[in-house]
């Protein structure tokens, strides 16, 4: 079946540094990918929509200069958390739309745990 | 404002029981209704999805019932097993494919 891979699975970084998370669609092309954030025991919150070859669109309240998104190819989107602070610690999850499937099925990656110390 | 309301927050069933999770939505533009299963520390995994032109869909032990007029849909897990213990999320999206998630339901299946 379709697989979406995220890397790294977990990362610890120092406050003030930047960290990049990759999201890859392994067996399909994804013109659209999405980035979510999830706090413990809560639902997924959509942060932004990543469109291949164009700028990402951010949800209300999400700082686009802090959460940089790049969708350079049909199989890769990256999320860079810039100048990370402890409150950015969270579970970040990407999803990708398989536009080749009837109904545009959306698959999720395994998530990336970010801890800012 | 949560666009998809999910209930209950949690439920416990015995092995073989049928957990039922309900979701309701307001936006009639939604045309894709998936259910995801999430284990602790993992990303959500697509279980089953339905579109408004179908009233019921089964995949293995999982069944979605969809009531378009009531704007409600539900997930039934038949013959539930301890391995089904997880958090389940309903979701909905329009043509922009941005998923709006319910709050999640933690299901515990006791052996």
Folded structure, characterized:
- The complex is a heterodimer of chains A (117) and B (111).
- In chain A, the strands form 2 sheets. In chain A, strands 2, 4, 5, 6, 9, 10 and 11 form a 7-stranded mixed β-sheet that branches. In chain A, strands 1-3-8-7 form a 4-stranded antiparallel β-sheet, with no helix packed on it.
- Chain A is built from no helices and 11 strands.
- In chain A, 0% of the residues lie in helices and 54% in strands.
- Chain B is mostly beta strands and 111 residues long.
Distance from N terminus to C terminus of chain A (CA atoms, Å) equals: 37 Å
Report mean pLDDT of chain A, rounded to a whole number: 92
Oligomeric state of the chains in view: heterodimer
Apparent shape of chain B: globular
Rounded Rg of chain B = 13 Å
Helix content of chain B: under 10%
Helix content of chain A: under 10%
Number of helices of chain B: 0
Parts with pLDDT < 50 across at least 5 consecutive residues of chain B: none
Following the backbone from N to C, one meets helices and strands of chain A in this order, namely EEEEEEEEEEE
Class computed from helices, strands and strand pairing of chain A: mainly beta
Profile the largest sheet of chain B: 6 strands, mixed
Which whole number gives the mean pLDDT of chain B?
A: 94
User: Which residues of chain A sit in consecutive blocks of at least 5 with pLDDT less than 50?
Assistant: none
The computed structural class of chain B is mainly beta
How many E strands of chain A?
Answer: 11
One letter per element, helices H and strands E, the order of chain B comes to EEEEEEEEEEE
For the secondary structure, the number of strands of chain B is 11
């Amino acid at each position: 079946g379709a697989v979406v891979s995220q890397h790294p699975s977990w990362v610890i970084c120092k406050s003030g540094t930047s960290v990049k998370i990759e999201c890859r669609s392994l067996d399909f092309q994804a013109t659209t990918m999405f980035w979510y954030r999830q706090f413990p025991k809560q639902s997924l919150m959509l942060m932004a929509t990543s469109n291949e070859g164009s700028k990402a669109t951010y949800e209300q309240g999400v700082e686009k200069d802090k959460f940089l998104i790049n969708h350079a190819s049909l199989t890769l989107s990256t999320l860079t958390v810039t100048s990370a602070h402890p409150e950015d610690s969270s579970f970040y999850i990407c999803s990708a739309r398989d536009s080749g499937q009837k109904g545009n099925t959306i698959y999720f990656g395994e998530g990336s745990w970010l801890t800012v110390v | 404002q949560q666009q998809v309301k999910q209930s209950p927050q949690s439920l416990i069933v015995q092995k073989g029981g049928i957990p039922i999770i309900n979701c309701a939505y307001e936006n009639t533009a939604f045309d894709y209704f998936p259910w995801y299963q999430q284990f602790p520390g993992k990303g959500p995994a697509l279980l089953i999805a339905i579109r408004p032109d179908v009233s019921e869909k089964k995949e293995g032990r999982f069944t979605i019932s969809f009531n378009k007029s009531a704007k409600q849909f539900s997930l039934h897990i038949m013959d539930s097993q301890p391995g089904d213990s997880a958090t389940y999320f309903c979701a909905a999206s329009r043509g922009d494919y941005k998923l709006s998630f319910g709050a999640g339901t933690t299901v515990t299946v006791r052996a």
